[in-house]
Specification:
phospholipid metabolism (chains A, B); Isopropylmalate Dehydrogenase; alpha/beta; 11 strands; 357 residues; 11-stranded mixed sheet; acyltransferase (chains A, B); Phosphate acyltransferase (chains A, B); 2 domains; 13 helices; phosphate:acyl-[acyl carrier protein] acyltransferase activity (chains A, B); homodimer
Chain lengths: 357, 357
Amino acid sequence: MSVRIAIDCMGGDHGLAVTVPAAVSFLSHVPDVRLLLVGREAEVRAALAGFGGADLSRIEVRDAPEVVAMDEPPASALRSKRKSSMRLAIEAVKSGEAQACVSAGNTGALMAISRFVLRMLDGIDRPAIAAPLPNQRGGVTTMLDLGANVDCEPEHYLQFAIMGAALVSVLEGRDRPSVGLLNIGEEAIKGNDSVKQAAELLRASSLNFHGNVEGNDIYEGTTDVVVCDGFVGNVALKTSEGLARMLNGIIREEFSRNLLTKGAALLSMAVLKRLKDRVDHRRYNGASLVGLRGIVIKSHGSADAFAFEFALRRAYDAARNGLLERIAQTLPQLTAEAHAGATGMPPQPSEPPGAVR
Amino acid sequence: MSVRIAIDCMGGDHGLAVTVPAAVSFLSHVPDVRLLLVGREAEVRAALAGFGGADLSRIEVRDAPEVVAMDEPPASALRSKRKSSMRLAIEAVKSGEAQACVSAGNTGALMAISRFVLRMLDGIDRPAIAAPLPNQRGGVTTMLDLGANVDCEPEHYLQFAIMGAALVSVLEGRDRPSVGLLNIGEEAIKGNDSVKQAAELLRASSLNFHGNVEGNDIYEGTTDVVVCDGFVGNVALKTSEGLARMLNGIIREEFSRNLLTKGAALLSMAVLKRLKDRVDHRRYNGASLVGLRGIVIKSHGSADAFAFEFALRRAYDAARNGLLERIAQTLPQLTAEAHAGATGMPPQPSEPPGAVR
């Protein structure tokens, strides 16, 4: 089946300067994909004109006179930007013209509009944001929620786990992905009530539930999926970004300290390049907004064309491998199981699993 | 004034093998400190005997026949280990024989026993765990709570801020340290209710409140103090540990890939050494349990002697610079101000400060 992806060409910090080159490059790498470029038509066509060799037969341009600003309040974007590139890209998914859409625009607006246009799957209240993070096993750990749901009921963690597992089985090709519940290690005070009850639900489901994990397990790759509330997930993600940036700055500083260290840097160039590649956050670009009746991928706002193409690849893989069908299939069954199991037994104190010292 | 520090010599993964060498080394570096070594007396003396040159005139050994195990439930340690090295070290602070105590033992037990023996400061419910993290400005960001308080009321964040600011002014010598409230950036859903109300209290106090900060601000050093609930703080800390370990592993792997890269490593040795030193977590060892009527410093359980000595240094600095007096002085006034200010005005939606994009 040929997949068509709708791209919000105006979104992100760089708009057309990133989205159009990424689209053209993606077309050249994936022979059977088609793209719907949504944005101010004249500008999109002008950007495309720069690429003489692009296969225009697989591109369609759709005019969208409006643009959602990066700092626009979601409610205002939803109400007053009905002809925005973001809105029309999402509507192309709703109408079936595209099987997925990708935007680097304002996250809050993307969530609000997606939710309004596409609607949620039965039994899901809000979209969750899921993204892959590199781990030391050389694979990725998929983490959710990364900021959409600040206060979570036990039920929500279960939903995140089901959607996360479906995402990993579809995108990473894992059979029965393992799921960890993010918690803290301190024995006396392990977890808050929601997390403790969530563990009960997860244990009662037929998901491959590993048990509690701690922050370090994200990068150790202890489980394929890590679930947490959106506040915690967002802090963990941004803390990681800050730490990586600091370490990168220190490496740079130390290697450029004097002539000797500059010489060492020259000789270590190949190593430093590989190092950089292996932890290049651009390769992990493309968060999934899950729980919607359609595939929506959020690129980092500051993504360059290289990074944006990874987001396009994720949208393509999710659509081609039937992410929505997978979630829709497993959600009702796993939810029913969890509730039957968890209510069938008295609430128990959550026990420390192997991952918790 | 000469300061005396009580050391739980049996605590931690390595016990006497770490605590005694660290104590002897610390004595040799700090001329006016005295130490009370608490543990099984014969074993402590045997360990001390290995150090011929130690200034024994500044050391006193106190026998404690029992040891709190690293995995012992706090309640059991509290009830049944009344002659443990941990308990007697804390009791030496209570009696005034020591001005601070340091333990690398079981965190939960240390908190429970400290709270029971020393009692909390007026108006503080539980101890909070505060620790310094390196930031890219070359200084440290002091973060709390790191795991003691899972569910926090707005009031608790204010208490953390007051205690964190006192800690930084005493330990880092900063006048009016800036305080950030850890939050998430997503516009539509900024923060949960507790955090929003906490921002009101902080704004109404005369603390140097910067406003909301995000995870990346911890390592950017945007503020001197970052306050958050213990769940979030613990996850941020452990996530950082996991990421740092992964990056360290990758650097090692890439530099030992083949003869060429090994040669590059040899030539980069000085750089790699400096790099390692700058982010050496051992230099930041020593978390403060704040809110107690006494100074208690928690060393990492796996600390080596080098790291444990840093924890001793923190205890010494906190005692010598009057941490408790500073907190006791500022707590009532700042609390009263915050409540007068916050209740004097109607609750307002928290506004995004500069740090939030």
